[in-house]
Amino acid sequence: MAATPVEVCVKAAAGAPDILGDCPFSQRVLLTLEEKKVPHEKKLINVENKPDWFLTISPEGKVPVFKCDDDKWVPDSDVITQIIEEKYPNPSFVTPQEFSSVGSKIFPSFVKFLKSKDPNDGSEQALLDELRALDEHLKAHGPYVNGENISAVDLSLAPKLFHLEIVLDHFKGWKIPENLTYVHAYMKDCFSLIHIYAG
Questions:
Q1: Is-catalytic flag, 23?
Q2: Per-residue pLDDT tens for 154-173?
Q3: Which CATH homologous superfamily contains domain 6-87?
Q4: What is the pTM of this model?
Q5: Which residues make Cβ contacts (< 8 Å) with residue 160, sequence separation at least 6?
């Protein structure tokens, strides 16, 4: 008997309610389900005009939300991916403790730089430092954060890098330096997954 698909609500694209949106947290949950080959049904939510049924299950209106076995809907991609890992342990995406925080400061650094109006406030350099640290890690341990196999930290980091690249190019004309070759190779590998699963 085929497994009943799990249900997950994720962000729809602005102006295109049938296409997955640019939410890195929604993409993280979908990538985790796809890479574990867990049958799932994604419900695309127009966050500009949230349907009443969605606000009933997610009163704060946040995506993603995931339906658990007890019919309870759970928010927060950290919590959701942990539930998925525990329920579907194979393949394991558990990242070793020493690598679990690799790249964790990139997204907050990106947000600070994006919002910055002062080119001398150090926010660009802080982002570059974080990206350079990731490049050094990948050079020593790659091609993924935990070596040869993809893990939870990649499935969290890749959608954020995807978002970072598009948004900073659009709003600031800023690109990740070409000399960060390991980061570029990593992004190319990971982004191919996002493009495959975004359909």
A1: yes
A2: 999 999 999 999 999 999 99
A3: Glutaredoxin (3.40.30.10)
A4: 0.91
A5: 24, 106, 107, 110
